[in-house]
């Protein structure tokens, strides 16, 4: 049976590494024609690469227009570009707050706006998946700017789904938990962090980019789903600090 994504024109921001790169591979495996928007060139041949800073409005407008022209329209988009950060609120410079919010929220808004315009002008609708995070609804200390940006992306997706639905454009999000990406590698300086997270995951492991990418590609294809946030976190967000069973288990 042919894939619904066969021949689709697809754009992936942040598609040169991590979850974005895994998504590119899966889309291409489904037969989609894929373009990557990223500051970094993809480490493998295949997808069209357009160098773009997603926080720069002029660059995003030009890059999406270039992709739309080269692919003959736009059917699906995955908005994956993002950055992390780690700082206590009372010590956080405004520049650090702005750095994370600008890429994660402003960048997602700009890219969503432009891909929606492209899909609307094409007249055939489309499907967009943004990547948020379980940190957008958990209270992770030292990550206020990151968590706030991801919470805002989730709400942006819900509002966009209502606005764009009449044009046949579906907008959803996937919320990964701890995933073995270059961003996650920064936690190596935290003793025992990986092992602790794996223990608290219902599935007993840290996630893989491929696992999250499969959730993204599946969500792209669900024709009667919009405005939803799908957790692809192995159940780590199910962990509760007040779970009484923990007191009955061995340390």
Describe the model.
The structure is a single chain. With 251 residues, this protein is an alpha/beta fold. It has a single domain, classed as Rossmann fold, CATH 3.40.50. It is built from six helices and seven strands. Strands 3-2-1-4-5-6-7 form a seven-stranded parallel β-sheet, with helices on both faces. Helix 4 links the parallel strand 5 and strand 6. Helix 1 crosses helix 6 and helix 2 runs parallel beside helix 3. It is globular. The termini are far apart. The model has no long low-confidence stretch (mean pLDDT 94).
Summarize the structure.
This protein has a single domain, classed as NAD(P)-binding Rossmann-like Domain (Rossmann fold, 3-Layer(aba) Sandwich), CATH 3.40.50.720.
The beta-strand count equals 7
The number of distinct helices, counting runs of at least 4 residues, comes to 6
Mean pLDDT: 94
What CATH calls the topology is: Rossmann fold
Q: pLDDT under 50 segments (min length 5)?
A: none
- Beta-strand residue percentage: 5-15%
CATH architecture: 3-Layer(aba) Sandwich
Which percent range fits the helix content? 25-40%
Strand arrangement, major sheet: 3-2-1-4-5-6-7
Largest sheet: 7 strands, parallel
Give the CATH class: Alpha Beta
Rg over CA atoms: 18 Å
Cα distance spanning the termini: 50 Å
The CATH superfamily label reads: NAD(P)-binding Rossmann-like Domain
* Count of separate structural domains: 1
Topology as a string of helices (H) and strands (E): EHEEHEHEHEHHE
- Going by helix content, strand content and strand pairing, the class is alpha/beta
Name the overall outline. globular
């Amino acid at each position: 049976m042919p894939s619904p994504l066969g021949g689709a024109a697809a754009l992936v921001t942040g598609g040169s590494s991590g979850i974005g790169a895994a998504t590119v591979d899966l889309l291409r495996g489904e037969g989609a024609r894929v373009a990557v928007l990223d500051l970094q060139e993809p480490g493998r041949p295949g997808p069209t690469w357009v160098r773009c800073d997603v926080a720069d409005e002029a660059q995003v407008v030009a890059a999406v227009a270039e992709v739309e022209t080269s692919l003959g329209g736009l059917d699906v988009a995955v908005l994956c570009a993002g950055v992390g950060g780690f700082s206590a609120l009372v010590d956080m410079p405004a520049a650090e707050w702005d750095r994370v919010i600008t890429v994660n929220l402003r960048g997602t808004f700009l890219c969503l706006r432009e891909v929606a315009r492209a899909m609307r002008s094409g007249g055939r609708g489309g499907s967009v998946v943004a990547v948020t995070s379980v940190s957008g609804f958990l209270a992770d200390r030292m990550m206020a700017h990151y968590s706030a940006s991801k919470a805002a992306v989730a709400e942006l997706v819900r509002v966009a789904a209502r606005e764009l639905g009449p044009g046949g454009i579906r907008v959803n999000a996937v919320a990964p938990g701890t995933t073995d990406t270059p961003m996650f590698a920064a936690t190596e300086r935290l003793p025992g962090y990986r092992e602790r997270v794996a223990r608290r995951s219902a599935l007993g492991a840290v996630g893989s980019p491929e696992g999250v990418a499969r959730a993204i590609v599946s969500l792209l294809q669900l024709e009667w789903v919009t405005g939803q946030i799908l957790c692809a976190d192995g159940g780590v967000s199910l962990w509760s600090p007040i779970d009484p069973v923990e007191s009955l288990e061995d340390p």
